[in-house]
Write a structure and sequence with these properties.
By secondary structure, the chain is of the alpha/beta class. The chain folds into two domains: about 15-120, Rossmann fold (3-Layer(aba) Sandwich); about 135-355, Rossmann fold. It has helices at about 25-30, 50-55, 75-85, 95-105, 130-155, 180-190, 230-250, 260-275, 290-295, 335-355, and strands at about 5-10, 15, 35-40, 65, 90, 120, 175, 195-200, 280-285, 300-305, 310-315, 320-325. The strands form three sheets. Strands 9-8-7-10-11-12 form a six-stranded mixed β-sheet, sandwiched between helices. The protein has a four-stranded parallel β-sheet with strand order 3-4-5-6, with no helix packed on it. β1 and β2 form a beta hairpin. The longest helix is centred in the middle third of the chain and has 28 residues, at about 130-155.
Length: about 350
């Protein structure tokens, strides 16, 4: 922190110096500091990053408020804190982490209760509703990333070549509403799962996406409404979609992809040709909600929507709409299309297996 107050500029008018700066040298930043907030994420780089030297460079009456896991302190840092006459540590975390910290300090021979300036261990901030919300959000992002990577890994382990033969006559059926790129990619993944597939709707060059969405790199989305975690998740969804789409093109070399509108239309025509050879039926009619409900009593119906229509899609079965809400991470078409198609494929397979197990 810059502690200097306002100073006159060259014209004699008062102006304020920057009050906050970012430093790379930890010792320089902490030298003589009286108030320190420690909010590090615990990883390989930050574990035991705060050592004895950094503790000793603080002001002798410094107050440290730590909301990071206490493993950011090295063993010699804890010993330095235990013997410091005026440095106060406030550690705010969950009960289990605080208990583990007490045990660690005791094992080091510097029990917290015997520090010259006893540490304050509290759950005051950690147990607030706001903190719980932040933790839930962080965990949900990490679980989503883990699930995404596992999904992609499973799909990359198998061929994405559209079968040349038709599905078995006794294979389960599934219907897809929408003949844009999203609908075609849904048909690809469900045909790969050995479903008899029917696609309803007239010819559409696009359903909210074009080939221009198929970037060669996973770029950040320009969306001011996304939180940083969701921004990162959106980029990773794009990256996963690109990886799957590249494998799809490699496994189906007859498909020629290029970035202009004419090339996109040609791409869709080539996918349709391969799907028709594979036995996928294309029906020009559109279905009403009543017709969808009736059809869903016999088999699954998938309604993929373009990005301009809605965020997400529905899996309809026995008249029940199971909506998959994509939220702000959704970017339809060739960027994430195969990610969502893969997810729908696995959900339908799981629901079908669960339904069979009941009978």
């Amino acid at each position: 922190m810059d502690r200097q107050g306002p100073r006159p500029d060259t014209l004699g008018k008062a102006c304020s110096d920057s009050r906050v700066y970012f430093g790379l040298d930890w010792h320089e930043v902490l030298e003589g500091a009286r108030a320190v907030a420690i909010c590090l994420s615990l990883n390989d780089e930050s574990t035991h990053r705060i050592d004895q030297a950094l503790i000793q460079c603080l002001h002798t009456q410094a107050r440290l408020v730590c909301v990071a896991k206490p493993d950011v302190f090295s063993d010699d840092a804890l010993r330095a804190l235990a013997t410091a006459e005026g440095i106060q540590l406030v550690l705010d975390y969950g009960p289990g982490t605080l208990d583990a910290f007490r045990g660690r300090a005791q094992a080091l021979g510097c029990s917290v209760s015997k520090w010259r300036k006893p540490a304050t261990l509290t759950t005051q901030a950690a147990m607030t509703e706001a903190c719980h919300g932040d933790l839930d959000y962080a965990v949900s992002i990490q679980l989503s990333l883990t699930a995404l990577r596992c999904l992609v890994r499973r799909k990359l382990a198998h061929s994405l070549t559209i079968p040349a033969q038709q599905a078995d006559a006794g294979a389960p059926r599934v219907s897809i509403l929408g003949r844009g790129i999203n609908g075609l990619l849904q048909a690809v993944m469900l045909r790969l799962a050995n479903y008899q597939v029917s696609v309803y709707g007239g010819h559409q060059q696009s359903d909210g996406a074009g080939l221009s969405a198929a970037e060669t790199t996973a770029k950040p989305l320009s969306n001011d409404y996304l939180t940083p975690g969701n921004q990162y998740l959106a980029v990773e969804c794009n990256r996963a979609g690109i990886e799957l789409f590249e494998k799809f093109l490699a496994d189906n070399p007859s498909i020629d992809a290029s970035g202009d509108d004419l090339g996109f239309a040609h791409l869709m025509d080539e996918i349709v040709t391969l799907l028709q050879r594979s036995g996928v039926q294309f029906m020009p009619q559109y279905l009403s909600p009543t017709q969808i409900a009736d059809m869903s009593r016999e088999h699954f119906v998938v309604t993929p929507m373009g990005a301009e229509e809605t965020d997400g899609l529905s899996i309809v079965y026995c008249s029940a709409y199971n909506r998959i809400a994509a939220g702000g991470t959704y970017a339809g078409g060739t960027t994430q299309g195969l990610v969502w198609a893969s997810l729908v494929q696995e959900i339908i397979q799981a629901k079908a297996s669960a339904g069979s197990a009941r009978y």
